[in-house]
Amino acid sequence: MTNAQLTTNPTIGKYNTLRVIAIRDNGVYLDAGELGEILLPKRYVPENCQADSIVEVFIYADSADRLVATSDKPYGQVGEFVSLKVVQVNKMGAFLDWGLPKDLLVPYNQQHTKMEVGKYYLVRIFLDQVTDRLVASSKLDKFLDIWPADYKDGDKVNLIIGNKTDLGFKAIVNDLHWGLLYDNEIFQPLRIGKKIEGYIKQVREDGRLDLILTRGSKNTVSNFNEKLLAHLADNNGFSSLHDKSSPEVIKNTLGVSKKTFKATVGHLLKQGKIAIEKNGIRLL
């Protein structure tokens, strides 16, 4: 039991803090708001539980597709990327062990490559809006941001290790973007699904991210801050340069790469020294 605040909008596939409203021989019933009354089976009921007790539970559908609660902790919840092992494959798809009695389904149309029993795959857990069933997908690109990453060199980020490539390991950055760790800069064992902290080594001209697991030396962003501010001041506080400007135009105008320009703009924006307008940058 817990003293935590009640979950105002209980969600299938996530942890929820709910109130006990009835005690029965087969367990206790919980008030799950719009989801209705949900059973927490007797084997999961904490000691000294009574009416109005507050419990933290995970909500999912059992083998009969009935919503139930459990105090078991699955390996992941809705909205998370996690590496899971395939324990069965049948005509419906692949089933993953995620730490609950009912395995997690990856339908065939959600498999990036055909899954095999005994292998681990990095997947995203989500609630199918059509069937209201918890499922997973290894087609990860559709869950990541299509817009260029707004990072600067040296930023600390959270990584989830993805597949091995010829160059190194792909990694999901802050649950939003793909990045790449290079083999010659990896000095620890990595596995698919491992969660680890890292740093942005470089935001490339094409917007892709190069990553590193240890912080590198101080980058050139701070040295360019004053030059960009001076450029704005010399042009009545405005520059028509922006994130869509070509690398050539930026280099000819300011003498730096587009990567350094974008990183510096982001740095000054956070400091409140500039504002982004429709057609450029304005000095505040």
From TrEMBL:
InterPro entries: CvfB_fam, CvfB_S1_st, CvfB_WH, S1_domain. Residues 11-73, 77-139, 152-214 form the S1 motif domain. It comes from the Bacteria. Belongs to the CvfB family. This is S1-like domain-containing RNA-binding protein. It comes from Colwellia asteriadis. The lineage of its organism: Bacteria, Pseudomonadati, Pseudomonadota, Gammaproteobacteria, Alteromonadales.
